[in-house]
Amino acid sequence: MPGVDDRRDRMLLLAACAILLVLVVFIGWLTLRACGLNLPWPGGGVSFCPAQTVVEGVAQDDAQAARLAAQIAELAALERQLALAPVCPAAAAPTMPQQRAAAPPPAPERPVCAMPNSDRVVLVLDVSRSMAVSHLVDAAQERRMLQLTDIPPLMRILMGTEQEYQALTAAIDATPGQSRISVAQAALTELTRLAEPEVTIDLVSFAACGQPEHHGSFAAAQRDQLRQSIADMALKPETALSGALRALPGIAPPTPGGGPINVVLVSDGYDTCGGDTCATAKALAQSRPDLKVSVVAVSQQIEELRCIARATGGHYVAPTDLPRLAAAVRAAAGQARTEDCE
Fold first, then answer.
1. Are residues 202 and 236 in the same domain?
2. Which residue in 244, 130, 234, 223 sits closest to 179, CA to CA?
3. Which of 137, 273, 285, 252 is nearest to 206 (CA)?
């Protein structure tokens, strides 16, 4: 019936409106609660989020201002206390302990005149091409140049080290000072003039890989010939330092009385033939303890040369001035004069 249907539709519409109103109120209430607000219930009041935020911000500002004021007051009190405190006298400078006397320099591995006299002396001279440069060449520069020398020129160009190699070569060639070979020849020549008449002197030179060259054994009557042989030395490529050490037992057999044989090795170091110089020196000391190899370095100090003297019981000298070089060679040969000794 039309009347009944109309009433039913109105009732449904009113119900829907009521439900919608309840939902709106409920959602609004939830929103206000999330903001920290309360609906106007008995015993409570209505507040709004913006107003509460402002109040809370003001409260926070007040709290910070109070803390800042308290800190300022504490600083002011501390300043007053410092102003009233007595001034402490300047502390006396601490007394430095009495300095000890400078320690004496370490003793050399062997005194200059420690090598005993012997009736036979073997002079072993390095005649490698590196002996043509100054005896004052920097050791680090020379070591680097030798490393680059082992690299083929084309590889140096590809690696970008050819320019460094050329610069090092030029710097070494331009180093002032007498050549190493001329320094060595002068010292050995001086030795031949001062050696005792009964001393036989062997002359050995080494350079190219392989066996060294034995120029002969020279008695006192042959000293002029010995000096000429020293002056005629020609420089050659490579440095067979280990090979020279291995050849010594064949060049200088033991003396009938078993006495020591002084060997004077004059070199600028660095075996370039693949030998282990230190290991060779140790093996020589075990097989021929009578061979005392003293080393006279005509370049900057090099450990490869030092270990030869240490292993065989000789001594190592690297004089920084030319006058002491001749005395060092005489002492190493066991032919030192009284004024050479320290």
1. yes
2. 130
3. 273
Same structural domain for residues 198 and 325?
A: yes
- SS3 call for 333: coil
For the domain that residue 241 is a member of, what is the CATH number? 3.40.50.410
Assessment of whether the complete model's pTM goes beyond 0.85: no
Distance between CA atoms of residues 136 and 235, nearest Å: 19
Q: With beta carbons less than 8 A apart as the criterion, state whether 233 and 205 touch.
A: yes
Report the alpha-carbon distance of residue 299 to residue 88 in Å, rounded. Answer: 63
Q: Strand pairing of 316-317 and 291-297?
A: parallel
Whether 237 and 266 share a structural domain: yes
Map tokens 């033991």 to a residue.
Answer: 254
Per the structure, the count of domains in the chain is 3
How far lies 297's CA from each of 304, 310, 324, in Å?
Answer: 10, 14, 12
Structure confidence by residue, pLDDT tens digits, 63-95: 666 666 676 666 566 555 555 545 444 444 444
* Whether residues 13 and 143 fall in one domain: no
CB 212 within 8 A of CB 133: no
